[in-house]
Write a structure and sequence with these properties.
- The chain is mainly α and 107 residues long.
- Helices cover 63% and strands 0% of the residues.
- It contains five helices and no strands.
- It is globular.
- 25% of the residues are buried.
């Protein structure tokens, strides 16, 4: 599946926002995020931005499910699911956020 640079960064922004749902980022979550960044062949500058989102979450205004292209919705949802499961536990806030994200993508 081809994605533009902007779409790849949107995906990373969503993934990073999901790892922050429980207000802490575990090492397993960091590792997952960086593996995804590697698979997407992000540039050094893009990887630096992702690392910044792991230190401080992306702004909520920058994470808009309505901007996710239809052809990428399954990928974004799968990445979000992987993000919330990465640390081996899913707290209610993560489950709720994922359900809301799923609902917003299904319209």
């Amino acid at each position: 599946m081809k994605m533009s640079a902007a779409e790849r960064m949107d995906l990373m922004r969503f993934v990073c926002s999901f790892v922050w749902t429980d207000l802490q980022v575990a090492q397993a979550e960091r590792d997952l995020v960086m593996r995804i960044a590697g698979r997407l062949h992000l540039t050094e500058a893009e990887v630096r931005q992702v690392a910044e989102w792991l230190r401080s979450p992306p702004r909520a205004d920058d994470v808009d499910p309505t901007r996710v292209p239809h052809e990428h919705r399954r990928l974004f949802l799968a990445a979000a699911e992987a993000a919330i499961r990465a640390d081996g536990r899913v707290v209610p806030a993560e489950r709720d956020s994922l359900a809301l994200f799923r609902d917003l993508l299904e319209d």
